[in-house]
Amino acid sequence: MRVNRSVRGGAGRGVSLMGLVKLLMACWRAAAAKCVPLALTMMFIDLVNDGLTWDSVSGELVFNPLIWGILTFATAAVGVRSLRRRAGVAGIPLSVEALDDRQTHVLRPVPVSDGWQGRVREKLAASERAFLVAEKGHEEVHFRWRPGRGKQSVWGSMSFDAPSGDVVLDVRDGEGLLGVAGLGKGSSFAAVCQIAGATGLESGTARG
Q1: What pLDDT, on a 0 to 100 scale, did the predictor assign at position 16?
Q2: pLDDT digits 0-9 by tens, 50-105
């Protein structure tokens, strides 16, 4: 399990140019994979309507990939912008791993004071996006979270370390959500950002 520990205040806004390029390419691949069936169907329909001639076939093979490439790149750019905005607001580190179905982050309450665990639980349960919130002992809580406007949700859990003030947030996408910009990716990362904002948690200071 990959656990993300980040420097406070460095997330989202501090992602490197190379990191953004990698994320953009990953989003572009996801967008292309989603669009391939539709693109092939449209190409076949056009070929049938135009007749199977050399000119029509060569034209479809040249121009259709170019058009779909531009459209999917634009979709990928929208996805990156959405992810970067969410990360910046929540203070969560942004990288190509933001597209992973499972996200595990170490967060901290603001501020760490007596009773902080109870306050985090209360804020989580009070959110309209959370449901089936159930405590598993005193140090762990499990829940479902709706990252979008629909009824589909992700699985989530929080583990509390009272002495250190750390909260390990583990979120998993198991329902094939649309993700950011319809990419089918990024739902778990979006949920992490939403949960952090709703519960008053932020990125923990990196420790070796």
Answers
A1: 86
A2: 665 655 556 555 577 788 888 899 999 999 999 999 999 999 999 999 999 999 99
pTM: predicted TM-score of the whole model, two decimal places: 0.82
106: closest CA among 141, 56, 30, 158? Answer: 158
Amino acid at the residue 158: M
- List the one residue out of 15, 9, 30, 21 whose CA is nearest residue 176: 30
Residue with the two structure tokens 């691949």: 29
Q: Let me know: does 8 contact 202? Beta carbons within 8 Å.
A: yes
Q: Alpha helix (H) ranges present in 51-166? A: 54-90, 116-126
**What does each C-alpha distance from 77 to 30, 42, 102, 107, 176 come to in angstroms?**
12, 23, 22, 28, 21
* Residue 23 vs residues 44, 87, 139: alpha-carbon distances, Å: 32, 13, 34
pLDDT tens by residue, 137-161: 778 999 999 999 888 999 999 999 8
Task: List, in order, residues 6 or more apart from 105 with CB less than 8 Å away.
Answer: 3, 4, 6, 92, 93, 168, 169, 192, 203
pLDDT higher at 99 or 7: 99
> Cβ neighbours of residue 195 under 8 Å, at least 6 residues apart?
124, 127, 145, 156, 169, 171, 201
